[in-house]
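thought: user wants a sequence for this fold. calling inverse folding tool.
action: design(structure=
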């Protein structure tokens, strides 16, 4: 999907552009730090022509584009929370199972302090996302897009 300016009316509209369309090319972004499973690329369009049948219905302005992008923020926020929680849970499991001097390293103060701080920070982030996501996902009078709990 490509968001582009329609030369007919100067409005930003959504278009489906097939990978084999003449003038369409991509360059994969390398060395990503997070969410490497999501494939991102720099998209280059050179004299690309798109049929009217490939235009997204009801995506006729920048406002419609912004609405789609706004709706994706909630998913991105929860994805970040999930990644942080997974990292914390893996680190905690490792600290409990890894022994040094005859006991788990989780029992040493030097390990317990940062773990407690991470857990507290995770709790704060989850609370912030829960309070923000219903606002980010709210459409014009339609209520929250996601239910958390």
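)
observation: tool returned 149 residues.
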């Amino acid at each position: 999907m490509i968001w582009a300016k329609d030369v007919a009316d100067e409005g930003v509209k959504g278009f489906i552009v097939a990978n084999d369309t003449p003038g369409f090319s991509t360059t994969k972004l390398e060395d990503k730090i997070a969410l490497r499973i999501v494939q991102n690329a720099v998209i280059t369009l050179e004299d690309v022509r798109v049929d009217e049948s490939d235009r997204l219905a009801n995506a006729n302005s920048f406002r419609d584009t912004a609405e789609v992008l706004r709706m994706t923020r909630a998913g991105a926020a929860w994805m970040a929370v999930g990644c942080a929680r997974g990292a914390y849970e893996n680190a905690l499991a490792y600290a409990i199972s890894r022994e040094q001097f005859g006991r788990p390293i989780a029992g040493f103060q030097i390990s317990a302090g940062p773990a407690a701080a991470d857990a507290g920070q995770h709790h704060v982030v989850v609370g912030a996302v829960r309070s923000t996501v219903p606002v980010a996902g709210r459409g014009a009078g339609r209520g929250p897009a996601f239910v958390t709990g």
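thought: summarizing for user.
answer: Here is the designed sequence. The radius of gyration is 23 Å.
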